[in-house]
Write a structure and sequence with these properties.
Layout lengths: L1 H15 L14 H21 L1 H9 L14 E6 L13 H12 L4 E5 L6 H5 L4 H17 L4 E7 L1 H10 L4 H4 L2 E7 L16 E4 L24 H11 L3
Helix pairs in contact: 2-3, 4-9, 6-7
Length: about 240
């Protein structure tokens, strides 16, 4: 149902997103629609929770836009940074579908999710990723490593969130970076940039060939809104890197 909703809304987005205008790419394009799509998905799942709380409560949690579970010290800790203008601290376009797919593969009881709290403004994206969000990411990585010595850390982000986790991971020590079992990024403006002290075999980047954000432009197109379709592949990659 969730992937169907994503697909339908992304299709709708193709009719509302403006095509890149030659000579006009000095102005950001499409970010407002990205925010509206994320908000619409969040509202849909809030409505489901309101009417079906007793039967879908556990599953609904996978689609929450805010996740603060760092201290639970489960076998796996996912640290996720949402995209520009998305609500909560994990958003709805890429994070929740990924969490749902991971829950289906390894079990929801095997991992906790901690979102990165940062403003996720358009300006932050234009500046190459929010500096405060990067510092928060680094702090969360350090906390996960120190508070939960046995947890396997998965680092992930979407859109500007991918910028943020790149920058944040670069701020931690090699010892903390060694605790990262897998990195998964969606719609990454820094596509191809390595994560310091994380082996490249642990990193997976999902970028559509025609996603302009992955080319570090300032234009959001419909491809950039469609990474829910890669949720299962992302979860399978992470599963292959875990020891459970």
């Amino acid at each position: 149902m969730y992937l169907l909703l994503i697909s339908c809304l992304a299709l709708l987005a193709t009719t509302t997103l403006t095509s890149p205008v030659p000579g006009a790419q000095s102005e950001p394009q499409g970010f407002e629609q990205m925010g509206k799509l994320s908000a619409a998905i969040s509202a849909h799942h809030a409505s489901l929770a309101q009417h079906s709380a007793s039967t879908l409560q556990k599953r609904q949690n996978e689609f929450d836009i805010t996740r603060n579970e760092l201290g639970q010290c489960k076998p796996v800790t996912v640290i996720f940074a949402r995209g520009t203008i998305e609500l909560g601290n994990v958003g709805s376009l890429a994070g929740p579908p990924f969490f749902a797919a991971l829950a289906a593969l390894i079990g929801a009881d095997k991992f906790s999710v901690q979102g990165v709290d940062y403003p996720a403004t358009i300006l932050g994206y234009l500046e190459g990723g929010d500096a405060g969000g990067a510092a928060t990411t680094a702090s969360l990585l350090e906390q996960a490593a120190s508070q939960c010595p046995d947890t396997q850390i998965v680092l992930s982000g979407y859109s500007q969130g991918a910028q943020v986790v790149h920058l944040g991971e670069a701020q931690v020590s090699p010892d903390v970076a060694a605790r990262i079992a897998a990195v998964v990024v969606f719609g990454d403006p820094f596509k191809g940039r390595p994560f310091p002290n994380v082996d490249a075999s642990k990193v997976k980047t999902f970028c559509f060939a025609l996603d302009l954000i992955c080319e570090d432009t300032i234009v959001v197109d419909s491809y950039h809104l469609s990474y829910a379709v890669d949720a299962l592949l992302a979860a399978q990659f992470v599963q292959s890197k875990l020891s459970l």
